[in-house]
Amino acid sequence: MSKNVLITGGTGFIGRYLTEKLLERGYTVSILTRNSKPNTDRVSYYIWDVTSQSIEEAAVHNADYIIHLAGENIVEERWTSKRKTLILDSRILSIQLIYDTLKKLNKRVDAFVSASGIGYYGTVNGEGICTENTLPANDFVGTVCQEWEKSADLMIGLGIRTVKIRTGMVLGKNEGILKKLTPIFKKGLGSALGSGKQYMPWIHVHDLCIMYIEAIENGKMTGSYNATINDSTTNLIFSRELANSFGYSMWLPNVPAFLIRLMLGERAALVLTGRRVSSDKIKKLGFRFQFKNLKKALKNCQK
Q: Is residue 58, in this structure, part of any structural domain at all?
């Protein structure tokens, strides 16, 4: 009988891609969603509401593994106090709901894998390379990631192997950051942001999803793992490569940092800062990235 993977946030960019990869490997998939959707032969949808802490318990009861991707988008809207609370609560309360349900059902899954972010290390610039042992930051994004991971660690108390994937910028066709940048760069209007020197640790969505599958299948994986390519890509390098992928050399001057801060407010730190991040820990387990070259990764995202 096929093993079942329950995914929160399964209808999003990464969740959709991950579902495809899991199905290709013979798993069945359950997805927790706020809106009813028709089931297919191998994908089942279950309703949950994090705010009211309600859930169709069958989703948890039938699961062999749980992958937690749910969380409000941290980039889309201005960081008002209300928005910050929503960003944090969407990650913490959703895990709490799953934890409470597992406990109520006396259910033990084989692994709980939670998304996290390299924002754990802070929205700051620096030359040092961050490893999983680097101390967390105390800014907003760092605090969100810390609380996110702390909530995931509740599962350890239930005897469940727990893995946290600290993700960098995810590249995928017409998704994520490329969904925003492609229309601009395709018109020949691309440019670097701020100084352009800020690092942009990235990962192709394929490699990220294979890492999630590795996390459920590899019993040696536990704790936190960085999901990035450590090639010292800066914003300037990334912008030049993206322009080159559309057949031209970037010619416009950098967008001034003050304009970005004016447009984005506090969120500007997400694009004006960046640190190098090591993925040596996952590599030591034998994991191999398919997309290690930025040029090839961007080309793949345009197919």
A: yes
Does residue 286 belong to any structural domain of this protein? no
Closest CA to 243 of 169, 184, 172, 175: 184
Provide the pLDDT for residue 36.
Answer: 84
Region for 178 from its dihedrals, namely left if φ exceeds 0, alpha if ψ lies in -120 to 50, beta otherwise:
alpha
Per-position DSSP letters for 94-150, written without gaps between them: HHHHHHHHHHHHT---SEEEEEEEGGGG-S--EEEEE-TTSPPP-SHHHHHHHHHHH
Quickly tell me which residue has 């800066």 as its tokens.
234
Q: Give the pLDDT confidence of 255-267 residue by residue, as tens digits.
A: 999 999 999 999 9
> What is the number of structural domains in the chain?
1
145: in domain:
yes
In our burial notation (b when 16+ CB lie closer than 10 A, e otherwise), range 279-298 reads: bebbeeeebebebeebeebb
Q: What is the pLDDT of residues 10-36, one digit of tens each?
A: 999 999 999 999 999 999 999 999 988
- How far from chain centre, in Å, is Cα 245? 24
270 within a domain of the structure (yes/no):
no
96: domain range? 4-170+203-227
Q: Is the pTM of this model over 0.90?
A: yes
Q: Beginning with the edge strand found earlier in the chain, give each strand of the sheet holding 169-172 in spatial order.
A: 175-175, 169-172, 202-204
CA 284 to chain centre: 21
